[in-house]
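Structure ticket #2291
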Amino acid sequence: MGRVNGVRETRKGGARRAALAVLGAAAVLMSLSAPTGRPSGGDAVPVAETEPAFPAVNYAVAVDESASLADADMAAEKAAAARIALGDVSSSSHVTVFGFAAAEGGGQSAVDPVCPRTTLDAAGRETIGACVGKLRKREAGEGTGTDFPSAIRQGVHELTNGTDPSEPRVLFLLTDGIMEVEDSPKYGDPAHRKAEGERQLTLALKDAAEQGVQIWPLGFGPKPDEKQLARIAAGGYQKGCVELPSAKPKAELVGGSEKVGTTLERIFAAAHCMRHEEGPAPKRPPTTFEIGISPLATVGSIVVDKGDPEVRITYTDPAGDKVPTSGTHKNSRFELAGGTGTVEALKITDPLPGVWRVRAEAPEGHRSLPVAVSVLWQGELGGAISMDPPSPRAGDEVTVTMRVQTREGYQIKDPSDYEGLRVTSELTGDGFTPLALTLADDGKGKDAKASDGSFTGTAEIPADASGALKVSATLTAAGLSADTRSEDGKVAPGELPVTTALDIPAGDTHPGGKVTGTLAVHNTSDTPRTLKLSVTDVKAGLLSVTPAQLTLKAGESATRKVTVEVAPAAVFGDRLTDDGLSLAGNVTVVDTTDGNLTLVQSPLSVDVTPEPGIWDRFWWAFLAAAVLIALAVAAVLALIRLRQARRDPHGLVLRLLDEHGEPLPGEHVAGHGHKQWYEFGVAEAHISPRIERRAHGPYAVRRNPNGGAVLRRRDGGRIPLSAAIPVQLTDGLSLALGEETRNTRKRKASSPTSTGPTPGTDPGGQDSTNAYDQTYL
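Resolution: structure written out below.
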């Protein structure tokens, strides 16, 4: 699946701009907590048999209220503190919010309690949203310095006093990073207060580290003290949710209040091992955004920075269904937070992977601010491990493969889904010290293809190995809970009683389809052997293998057909989109005769696409039929046009004859007719008879496809007309055809002696053909 990303725009207008920007990013800062790691297991444990877990997290937010902050930065800090409560996935999480500056006179305190420790259930989120409004920038005479040691000690106290030690402890420090304690009497003699403040800061950080409190500073203002912020981040507890550099606390610089939203999302994602995906560039409503959710995501929040609370948002999943903002839809659960504010976050548990569409609409007068979209998500890695051969002899080389999957067993092939993945592997067994293995997805050596989600390495079984073998591998990545897989084997004492060669190629089929391969077997023993075949490391019911069991006679050699069958479409549900999906597992063959000796374990990959519809299967027939229909229609139209052309009176030469059959002076050339009839009358019939074109005249002519023409009278009668057979019009006049021409202009130039009107014209000299055509055609 491809990614849909974008860049967030800035807002206009001082403090309001800052507050709106932070609202665009922090709505789900508490919406995701790292799921607990799944227990490791061998090939007998399906990858998807565990449910995602979202443990509680204990937060404290310290907000700088000192005079060194600009008003816009103070507004952004307040908005950030309020946003933290919007979308936590665990109703057992807690948050405390307090302001801090410095105590510089009697009755002053460095810490300003604002929101006591609050459980983040539905009521708690409303409480936090209201109480953060008490945060304020301090005025002169209230203690306007910046006392970091006091702020950190207060945060450690809130996070450790009466709390569950198993909950992660995180302190967010929102500040400009400039410590100012020179006016604080608690730090002793004025000449030494700065040095004493630094010493107390060191002690406060040491205590935070010992109490397991991570500190993530967020620097505001044009010139934050980067060195001081980095020192604070490094001084607290350093072990993150995973053992990756990205999970270690670090300072983040906003660089401007309008950027706080994106920065706050990123820092929160790093602190809790989540992924932050920025959406497309902000746009004004009405508009539609597209943003992707990874197939690895077990929980995610789509964050929409609306700017204006009147903007209304609807969400459409990759299957094309508009989803609810609360409750369940198919296999996903939904919960909306902040729907009436300037920012909302739709939390989705078990989201359908793929591209989601976010539609923003607004009434007139509320479309001036751009809307921005982003996603925070957290997921679970799965893996399928294999060792080839599974029962090697001492000194043999084995190939170990660890394949990245979802927890249901769907194969992940897009490297962006497991960016930053670290794979560690180890081979242990009887008689030798553990061996560290290097597994890589670089397309080198035994690794078949680079960046396909399969990590491969080799190892030589030590010469002193005997008995049991075990290979294990752990997948670790930011935003993805670690997964450990292991596979047991045995060191073969000599030649195996049954040798096998399993060949099942990668397949491409539809639900209910089959992938076939072969199993070559040779029983070298003098007793019958019973072999068991199974598909492992994939959710039960998705793949099955036939035969499940076969028996070999003593000394028998044979090649058997092996069929892997894919489950019907109903089993996959919404997971099976038009893009299809990949299933991954291992086909294992075990000799059950003597203690379940694994003979072969072969990686299996099956791409499953939806059953094609009628169009997909018979498009060529539809296309051929459409071509035939088009040809038939064209032929009919051509025939109609031909018939019309054969009846068109244009170019017919009409001549009047007297009572003796003698031609009168002048000829009249007919123009294009009205519905193939050229209508005319006789002017001055008793003085100087001539033909003139008349709409609805008493006479009309058109061609006869068989030759000549047909004259139509006003009474409806029709009479054949030709040069040899004139038709009587009145007692003294008849009509006959003259020499025909289709080029009236040429005839006009070649008939200077004509005494009647110019052929093709009305008596007034206007081109009768063009005038009549424009009126009646």
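Closing remark: The longest helix spans residues 614-647.
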